[in-house]
């Protein structure tokens, strides 16, 4: 953390530590994860009382930004509001991205003895899901490899770029899964994957090449590399049926993602 970040953070704490509607303050985001640059914003998670959280949730006010505290150019403080109960939900069933938001977080202020133990649970990797994730991520990788072949055949640039993004996403997710590492969401995906200690030696160079020029040939090399890493053969993976369950019939059991509305 650079001095101008610390100055802004100290000013924020002097204003928010005394607010009774908040029982905890966490430093999160790039400053907590170690990815900050000189112009990084400051990510704060405010742990609210249950009443305050319920009110803000109803009013859709669980996120807000403060632009009058940071004195450096384009600096601001980005705040998100949670509660102890919502943290317990993340610990019980949160997505990787929801969990990763609390990974490396620093507890700056607390008025609750429950907060620290809950935080230790929130950022844990869901190891019990690891085999199932490996299968589902592999099926997505192979499905989108097929879509890339279709994009090349039909000269469809939109499908090509979408398939390239998905191939990169699920190849990296397999690497993270094998290392019991959380998916950080898209912004830090490549950086987190580079940190994974167990991965094929040529994986990073293949991904770099693929992002520069997303061809089916390189996609096949990525798939081959991943399948060898997890000791599977492509013909053994029934990806069409799993892809149908996860991507085409996902609306049967819960509301579809906004992409599919």
Fold and architecture overview:
With 261 residues, the chain is α+β, with helices and mostly antiparallel strands. Strands 3-4-2-1-5 form a 5-stranded mixed sheet. The chain has helices spanning 3-16, 29-33, 50-58, 84-93, 96-100, 115-122, 130-154, 157-178, 189-195, 203-212, 216-229, 239-248, and strands at 22-28, 42-48, 63-66, 77-83, 106-110. The protein is 53% helix and 11% strand. The mean pLDDT is 95. The chain has 2 domains: 11-122, Beta Polymerase, domain 2 (2-Layer Sandwich), CATH 3.30.460.10; 127-260, Up-down Bundle (Four Helix Bundle (Hemerythrin (Met), subunit A)). It contains 12 helices and 5 strands.
Strand line-up of the largest beta sheet: 3-4-2-1-5
Structural class designation: alpha+beta
C-alpha geometry: elongated
Report low-confidence residues grouped into runs of 5 or more: none
Q: What order do the SSEs take from the amino end to the carboxyl end, as H and E? A: HEHEHEEHHEHHHHHHH
Distance between the termini: 41 Å
- The total tally of domains equals 2
Total beta-strand segments: 5
Number of helices: 12
Mean pLDDT: 95
CATH topology grouping of the largest domain: Four Helix Bundle (Hemerythrin (Met), subunit A)
Question: Over the alpha carbons, how many angstroms does the gyration radius reach?
Answer: 21 Å
- Biggest beta-sheet profile: 5 strands, mixed
Assembly type of the chains comes to single chain
| CATH level-two architecture of the largest domain | Up-down Bundle
What is the top-level CATH class of the largest domain?
Mainly Alpha
In helices, the fraction of residues equals 40-55%
Q: What share of residues are in beta strands?
A: 5-15%
